[in-house]
Amino acid sequence: MEQTSNPASERTPGQITRGRLMRLGVLIALASGLTYWWYRQRPPEPPALPTIPLDQFEPAVAAAVAKGIDRVRKEPNSSQSWGFLGEILMAHSCDQQAEQCYRRAAELDPCQPRWLYLNYFAIQARDRTAALPYLERAVQMFDKTEPQSTTPRLVLVEALLDRGSLVEAEQQLRLVREREPNNPRLLFNLGVIALRRNNPEHSVEYFARVVENPSCRKKASSQLAILYQILNKPDLARENSDRTRTAPDDEQWFDPYLDECFSLSVDSSHLILEAARLEKQGMFREAASLLEESALRSQTSRSELLIATNLAQQERFEEAVARLRKLAAKEPDNNSMCYNLGVSLYYWGERLRLEKPKEPNGAAEKFRESLGPLRKAIQIKSDQALAYTFLGLALWRLGQKTEGIDALRQGVRLQPVDMLTHWKLAQILEEQGQLEDALKHYQIAQRYAEKEDHRAQVGLKSVLAKLNRSEK
Amino acid sequence: MTTSRTWAVCALVLIGGALSSCSQPAATTPAAIEELSPPWFADITDEAGIKFKHDAGPMDDRYFMPQIVGSGAACFDFDNDGLLDLYLLQNGGPRGARNRLYRQVKRGRFEDVSAYSKLDIAGYNMGVAVADINNDGWPDVLVTQYLGVRLFLNNKDGTFSDITEKAGLKNPHWGTSAAFLDYDRDGWVDLILVVYVDYDDTQVCRAPSGERDYCSPASFSKRVSKLFRNLGVPADAKSNFPTIRFEDVSDRSGIGQTAGPGLGVVCADFDGDGWTDVFIANDGKPNHLWINQKNGTFVEQGVRRGVAVNVMGNAEANMGIGWGDVDGDGLQDLFVTHLSSETNTLWKQWQRGLFRDDTSFSALNRPRWAGTGFGTVLGDFNRDGHLDVAIVNGRVSKDITLINDELGPFWGWYGERNQLFANDGNGKFNDISMSNPAFSGRRQIGRGLAMADFDGDGSLDLVAMSVSGRARLFKNIAPNPGHWLMVRAWDKAHNRDALAADVVVRSEAKEWIRTINPGGSFLCSNDVRAHFGLGTVDEITAIEIRWPDADPERFEKGDPGFEQGAVDRVVILEKGCGHKRENNKDKR
Questions:
Q1: For A138, phi and psi rounded to 5 degrees?
Q2: How many of the other CB atoms lie within 10 Å of CB of A149?
Q3: Is there a smaller number of Cβ atoms within 10 Å at the N or the C end of chain B?
Q4: Size of interface A-B (CB pairs under 8 A)
Q5: Beta-carbon separation of B251 and A416 below 8 A
Q6: B235 — contact with chain A (CB < 8 Å)?
Q7: Considering chain B, what percentage of its residues have pLDDT values greater than 90?
Q8: Is the pTM here over 0.80, yes or no?
């Protein structure tokens, strides 16, 4: 019997076959793979917290940040805890520390796009180029986790437009268009692209569709002004240019992730801003509670001043003036204290004058009292136009007519675009019978009046009637 | 064998699985590796004898806002000896350090002549503008201040007289940049004085984190800028120094009818009608472009001419201004610096009088590092025929991660590095800041930036001002520079430089345009002469001057001041000595 040759049997001791080599290789590869997998999956070492100068923060902010730090200390491997700390930090302008937290949060939960997305904002103010990959990755991941959310993609479009990457921006916009064809932010960006592509007609169409949107009213108007100029339609260009000037500032686009982050802001300036917004809408009591809360968080003379001026706006003059007198005594060289005390006394006098016309002494006393603080305010800050305005009005009420008009004229000289001073001066001049001069100031007041403010127009009509002239 | 394959596949699947889990982008995008090239600038401050340290006033918890706005510098030949001198401003208040005037005694060497000159005033000095206000052939000086203005008449003997009051100039507001122009073509230069905000120094501002910091302009109401008309010297004036008078025409001209927190200004013919217009950079608000109506009034057209907001329709924190033709198309473009969280913006003039934000094409939005830009100049630093960009940076609010570097514990939070960008010849820019450590390597709070050829070598040098830092003089040492030409456009009838004149230099194959205008940048006054880098072009065929108040003239080889057509020299061309050309509406 012929013996079949077995190559294995021909091996000398110590020789390794190819098959064994292969198996060994596979085992090594498996071991490496497993090691790498374990390395990726193991709970990572908790990194050091970013350096956060808690002593530099106002107490409420420091407390909020400390709470976030505690949470991270308790749950060092929680993506949510790190992300939350990042949000608190970013809400208080600590972008670079927030960046470290977001990076850690994303390491702990690599499938959560929110931290990558927020990290884009934390980085982009410092380095737009470095920030962009975070946004691109976040958008890819949002497609899987929250496909209905178009905001991150629109943010990406704007980042690409900023870089001048029109083609990529258009590709991204196409995807948004499929989901939300009437999204105003989409339409606005389509308008920008059409403008960049030298297609003014298309661009006009897009911007015209969103020009009333509160998030892009001003922006769209300015773009339309340029476009109509290009299209040789000067009247429309002028109209949109004027609208750009008079429209209120655009609100931020809705962004659920950023809005949530900034809702964590607890600093007092945030409350003060909100209070100012409410006061502008005439909601003085609602604003007062925010100002009280702000003062509780950080009691400063500024917060006290804001509470006092709010009281004056509620016509609670007695309380307001008492507070302002205390503040002015504490800081006699503070222009704001003197000015606001003077203005509050003036308005108090005005109210007494209207409520008790038969007791003129009460009102006169307040007007007289207002002169001192207003003069002091002017002494401290010689270019303060409105201090001159109220000084002029108080003097006028006290019968010092020439001095009153002089002070008002000085107010106009210092701030020639102030509607109130022109209007008040015009009223006084009209009362004095100086109709031509009054007409001039009513006209200027009307130029600077807000849309809904018809006071100057009423005055203008009255003077024109007296002059027997038509408005034209 | 099959078993082996199975094993191998298993291994690959496992490894692949491990690798395919959600990955993160790299922490930072690897930046393109910049080929370090020879530097363009060397710091020669010490060798030049300039020992100026900016006084920003006390570093205390007042956080007095004018401190952080800084001060400017002027490059001009105050004694008409042919060497440019240097005037540097202080901002330490009435009891602080005084402004310094450095006279260039020989090329590259300066001596302090401040006290003798009487320009050594203290105060919250912000901006400086230079022009000959009385047409006597000697440059006069205007300084803007926080709540003030000062006007100095050149006495022609190395001294100046303060004529502010006599001249009827008043500014009770926060003045920033200023510039001279002859807007009404009466032969006398008028003054545009930019006003910032109605600052209340008792207002306490904080960063959102609660720390004390400088206020932002949004905390205060904006102000209108001022236009003062120069009434000139009476024809029958007999004195050597007849009184010059200015009249405040802000309201009448229209410029005083729209407020804006103004910081920068440039005067030039923006719409090509031959009349000088005014561009004002507004901080955080749309810019204003005041178009001259040729009847003593202006109409604001910034929005519709495309220079008020950026491509996304947003108003940015507009500060310093550069004006020049960056892409060689014969139309001048506008560059404005902004905050580090925004991008500096380049508005290219694509049709006469119409501009569009072309920043992304220019690549100026992709610098190696972001900075809050203030002073900026467009100059052809390597003389290759294309305008480059220099910017000085410095924050306006604290960055709490920048702790205590060389600027010390108070100012350390605000320091940033300057930037330099080289034009590639097509209107695109490469960031060459890394190759220029002298100019860009040091953190400082950059504010004023001016350019001039101090040493007469045909290359533009730079002067940089910083808050509480030293003024620095950077000598241009760019390697292998091309040919050059410097043009002074002289209005013989009025005995002064023709401010806002456009100068077009032509060779067989190319042409370049520059504006005679020392204003621009931020709070500064540059060399009044127009500088041209010509690259390899060694012969010029003609120079055209578009006078701001007369028909354009063409100077050809053989004409007075331009006999040879040769390059690498300074030429002085006088109005009336060239060949007249009919002015048409589109002067191109």
A1: -60, -40
A2: 18
A3: N
A4: 218
A5: yes
A6: no
A7: 80
A8: yes
